Amino acid sequence: MENVVELTNVTKEFKDFSVKNIDLQVKRGFVHGFIGANGAGKSTTIKMMMNLLQPDAGEVKVFGMDYKTHEKAIKERIGFVYDGNVFYEGLHLKDIKRIVAPAYKHWDNALFSQYVEQFELPLNKAIKNFSKGMQMKASLAIALSHHAELIIMDEPTAGLDPIFRRELLGLLQEIMLDGSRTIFFSTHITTDLNRIADYIAFINRGKLVFNNSIHDITENYALVKGRTELLDRDTEKAFVHINRLSTGFEALTENVTAVENTFGDSVVIEQATLEDIMFHMKGGMQHV
Q1: How are beta strands 268-271 and 18-27 bridged, if at all?
Q2: Model-level pTM?
Q3: Taking a C-beta distance cutoff of 8 angstroms, is the pair 198, 213 a contact?
Q4: Domain count, the chain
Q5: Do 122 and 53 sit in the same domain of this protein?
Q6: How many other C-beta atoms lie within 10 A of the C-beta of residue 36?
Q7: What is the pLDDT of residues 194-241, one digit of tens each?
Q8: Of the candidates 229, 224, 219, which has an alpha carbon nearest to the alpha carbon of residue 261?
Q9: pLDDT tens across 229-255, in order?
Q10: How many Å apart are CA 161 and CA 147, to the nearest integer?
Q11: Does 43 share its domain with 112?
């Protein structure tokens, strides 16, 4: 089975927000980044992947199964890493292990001990006294200790200092080496994904804009800078979004060849970062 997660035409309506017609596939054995501004729909989508929310329409499948008939079997194979502590704050890590371990038939005490030592986590210290980084490591140790095949991380690096963020990303790269796991990593800190992601899904205002490999994104998206007088009704068709500035224009394209054919050497074309793409897409899904 190539896809670990498949969302097909998934919609969830709220009073003042909706996630609409999401078609998303997460491939086995890769790190899949999920980007979007705060409030774009990332957490809502993840909650539907976890069956914490049920879609109003569409279908969610994990490991080729649906939650209606296979919820326990699916959750046995998922590890969820939170962006903060979800356990009773007075508990020690050894108490949390004692509570969590019986819930998983593949729990591995030796593996848990290995990660506790590797991550330098104290077993006899209340979780409320853990730093945010230590809480993240504790969640990751628990997820890995029941041999989770899919690790879902919702904004795991938010609020972490740059040094620990780099350390966490290094840990994620290590656990991917044997090819048996898949990581789905939601974040609005796009620089984190430049280091580890194989695929990127981008959600904007509740709609999935793209779900492509890093290679394809690098090849297709670019920033274009030039003089404002070069823009007209026809030339603007080469762009996804345009910012007009006092010194000229900066625009995002998803078709570098079209820009080259339209403008030749009269514009500057630069590689677009994930942050550039998010910035321009958030500015509008149309020419401005």
Answers
A1: unpaired
A2: 0.87
A3: yes
A4: 2
A5: yes
A6: 26
A7: 888 999 999 999 999 999 999 999 888 999 999 999 999 999 999 999
A8: 224
A9: 999 999 999 999 999 988 999 999 999
A10: 28
A11: yes
